[in-house]
Fold:
Amino acid sequence: MASSSTRTPLLPRLLKALVVSLVAVAASHVVLSDTLRLSLMGQAAAALGEAPGYSSDQAFTAAVVNTLLTMPLVLWPGMLISGERRVGPMVLVGTVSWQVAVWSGIDALGEAPGVLLPLPSLALVVAATALAAVLRRK
Structure:
């Protein structure tokens, strides 16, 4: 016996997805910028002859890996908490678009702490991720 679940209308689902996508992008960006700051501090410490206990390459790699893990770990539970199911396409599109945005804007982030990725690319990630929420399997 198959259980019939009521489907959320399109507009409320899209609004939920927009809010969750904004939170996921913000959280991922905070993780990225904070761990990249560790990389910059490691480079500065190495230039002064003081070893910070980790290399700047390790901090950079951690920044990229952690930010890629943050996106799906915020999107999936965020949508489940908001009462939505079948969020796989949204998580996939959000994670891939975030990765593309990071790789295309990482040079600007590496130059100074506190720099944001370009706002148009952030907006594109949020929009693509939210729109992917309306893709559902039957």
